[in-house]
Amino acid sequence: MGCEDEKVSDWGKSLPVPSVQELVRNDPRSLPQRYIQLHGDRPVVPDMAMASSSSDIPIIDFALLAKGDEHETRNLDLACREWGFFQIINHGMPEEVLLKMKAAIAAFFELPLEEKNKYAQDGNNFQGYGQAYVASEDQKLDWCDMVFLITLPHEIRNLKYWADTIPGFKDAIEKYSKEAQKVAEEICANISLLMGMDKDGLKRSYGNTKQAMRMNYYPPCSRPDLVIGINPHSDPDIITLLLQDDEVPGLQIRHKDEWVLVKPIRNAIVVNVGDVMEILSNGMYKSIEHRAITNESKARLSLATIMIPYDELEIGPMECAVDEHRPRMYGNMKYLDYLRYTFARKMEGKAHLDNTLKIKSSSF
Ligand code: OGA
Ligand code: NI
Predict the structure, then answer these.
(1) 300 Cβ closer than 6 Å to some ligand 1 atom
(2) Would you say the CB of residue 291 lies under 6 angstroms from ligand 1?
(3) pLDDT range class, residue 351, cuts 50, 70, 90
(4) Tell me: the pLDDT tens digits for 184-202?
């Protein structure tokens, strides 16, 4: 395992784009062409209050799961197989930690642009304040500004991107990061059991991990039916914990060929299976495409905490996940190569997982 990998990866250079928050500040009706989605990609903006409750994503009681409750363990299995997404309640993360984290993100985006720019992305490694990776001039852009920070392990943090002028900013991340790590590890331990291993089975395979945070700010948009907050993608990680706004929905996941809105539950955390987990489990657990939509009246904040392996890790299906009923569905690839490929092909939703690693059925 690449513990010696002290420096942060070079993932290739992103094209610079303007701050969406500033566009809206200067003109609330501004809508440059690069944000207007092609017809087929435009969202049907649901009436948030009316969104049906029939397709709610699974809810897992984390306290029961951690105690080894059989019913909750089965629910986790089902959630990872059929949805790739679930919400956890009773996760033990103190409300105060969640509230301070949200307040820190809100305080950051309230800063004037010049202040935020002190923490701007400046190289190839994506950390700092800016926008999601932009590969081409033709790319449709996200209606979103963000901050990306590597948060664990401590030794690889780069504090120059951390807004130390905001009182409590660092402390809020510190506390949230620690709690999120505990929860992510417990979920992975339970998934290991479900895969027929002991609790450390997955950890032995992916080794030491890094944790990173993506703080998203989606400004209101005068035409939410024309733009996308974050374009459809799957997360190229092991597992993601998403803290979303309690009041303003926006996350949609693809389920049975429909976009299902994930309705916020106060203080719950949304969890999703990432591409690496899908590959390790040989496709048993699904890394599902998702996106965020915007609305006309309220800005929305969210925080994705991602658990990623080190660059040198060779990822491929674990032996326990391959048998005659479930032949090997993915080849092996170094994680860094997978990431590079993912970023270069960012425009194509989840197609990269299918194209890069998936072994075509004809090869059997
Ligand atoms: C992400 C993401 C969704 C949201 O940051 O990877 O999918 O609701 N965010 O902000
Ligand atoms: Ni995501």
Answers:
(1) no
(2) no
(3) low
(4) 999 999 999 999 999 999 9
